[in-house]
């Protein structure tokens, strides 16, 4: 895979982007908590700046990514991210820390244009039998930075302060743009040919998803999986405190075990998973998540909880790798951006709904009841995919209807 110049170059770019994003996330979070004395309003605004662009700009960014040349789009997005952080650095040095929220917002918005362009290049230049391995490589990269990203971000901020953290971000975003310059020049045909207006093209993307049985089922399964993930995400600390009777600081060890297992799972799929159909992999990942989630909510034993978290982490890459592979295989290159812009908010939107309801549901019912409900939602997502698991992959024709 790494012999493919597109894969190799985009991977190197994403390494620098991941470093920049994790430094951004943790340095800004720690600085804002320090400067505001843990004011929950401003701390929550960081999450809003990070996630709101996914809802507001994913479909817009995906539509423009389908219209524009992918290499140029990614380079300009990374360069603009670096410029925005530079402006924020100047403002922060003058004494206004609230501009930090703007740095998070701008880079999050620009990523909605850059990410679908990368998927478009993979669709065009990676053989179909290698797509699943490429997605596994990307999942492994994300899992790796989930483990070390917080450590790096916190270390740079704690030792060098917010100004150096911002300079590191500028360097990472600029480096990513320069690396992308190594890609072959965009061919004119890589730009979308349709010029019917943005609203018409967004509607065309929605119609395209509705016309595909695979994409319809994926979107529905994505929504249930997002709701399931959102219900349990804010309650992990209560598993540590109520079920295991430990200090909340123990949560970091659970998360590290989960992240390390995700990394190993992604690497295994990358090397051995080519023979497994992506829909089978996705359904199995959802089934393991369903069983593991119920088990974590029920367990009062530390060793069992860690084992279950490690097991679900190991198979969690099956979900995202399976979904991304199916999207890449069953979406025409001219629609890649819009399909991604529809699918992403499906997961994130329902995850936010789940996160919003988690605390209330725990108070009304119990921790175990919420985790069980989450497990049932994962199971429903798996059942939605069963028709795809049974169906043979027979090309685009079998996926319409």
From TrEMBL:
Keyword set includes Transport: yes
Keywords: Cell membrane, Membrane, Transmembrane, Transmembrane helix, Transport
Domain of life from the UniProt record: Bacteria
Subcellular locations according to the entry: Cell membrane
Gene3D superfamilies according to UniProt: MFS general substrate transporter like domains
Protein known as: MFS transporter
A GO CC annotation given for this chain: plasma membrane
InterPro entries noted in UniProt: MFS (IPR011701), MFS_trans_sf (IPR036259)
Sequence intervals crossing the membrane: 12-32, 44-64, 134-158, 164-183, 218-241, 253-270, 306-327, 339-361, 367-389
Membrane topology of the entry: Multi-pass membrane protein
Pfam families on file: MFS_1
GO molecular function: transmembrane transporter activity
């Amino acid at each position: 895979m790494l012999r493919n110049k597109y894969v190799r170059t985009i991977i190197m770019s994403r390494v620098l982007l991941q470093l920049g994003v994790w430094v951004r996330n943790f340095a800004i979070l720690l600085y804002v908590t320090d400067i505001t004395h843990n004011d929950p309003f401003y701390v929550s605004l960081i999450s809003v700046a990070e996630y709101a662009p996914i809802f507001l700009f994913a479909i817009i960014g995906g539509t423009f990514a389908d219209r524009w040349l992918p290499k140029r789009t990614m380079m300009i997005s990374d360069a603009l991210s670096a410029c925005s952080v530079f402006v924020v650095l100047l403002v922060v040095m003058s004494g206004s820390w609230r501009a930090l929220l703007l740095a998070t917002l701008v880079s999050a918005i620009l990523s909605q244009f850059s990410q679908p362009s990368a998927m478009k290049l993979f669709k065009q230049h990676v053989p179909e039998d290698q797509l699943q391995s490429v997605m596994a490589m990307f999942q492994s990269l994300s899992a790796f930075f989930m483990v070390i990203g917080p450590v790096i971000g916190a270390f740079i901020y704690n030792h060098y302060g917010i100004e150096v953290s911002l300079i590191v971000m500028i360097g990472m975003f600029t480096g990513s743009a320069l690396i992308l310059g190594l890609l072959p020049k965009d061919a004119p045909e890589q730009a979308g040919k349709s010029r019917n207006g943005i609203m018409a093209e967004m509607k065309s993307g929605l119609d395209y998803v509705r016309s595909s049985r695979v994409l319809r089922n994926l979107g529905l399964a994505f929504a249930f999986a997002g709701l399931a993930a959102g219900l349990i995400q804010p309650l992990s600390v209560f598993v540590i405190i109520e079920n295991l009777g430990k200090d909340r600081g123990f949560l970091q060890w659970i998360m590290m075990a989960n992240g390390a297992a995700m990394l190993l799972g992604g690497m295994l799929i990358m090397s051995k998973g080519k023979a497994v159909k992506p829909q089978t992999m996705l359904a199995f990942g959802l089934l393991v998540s369903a069983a593991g989630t119920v088990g974590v909510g029920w367990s009062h034993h530390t060793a069992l909880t860690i084992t279950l978290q490690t097991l679900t982490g190991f198979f969690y890459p099956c979900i995202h790798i399976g979904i991304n592979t199916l999207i890449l295989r069953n979406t025409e290159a001219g629609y890649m951006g819009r399909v991604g812009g529809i699918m992403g908010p499906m997961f994130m939107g329902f995850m936010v709904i789940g996160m919003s309801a988690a605390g209330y549901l725990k108070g009304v019912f119990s921790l175990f009841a919420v985790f069980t409900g989450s497990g049932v939602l994962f199971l429903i997502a798996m059942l939605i995919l069963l028709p795809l698991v049974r169906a043979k992959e027979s090309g685009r024709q079998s996926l319409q209807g």
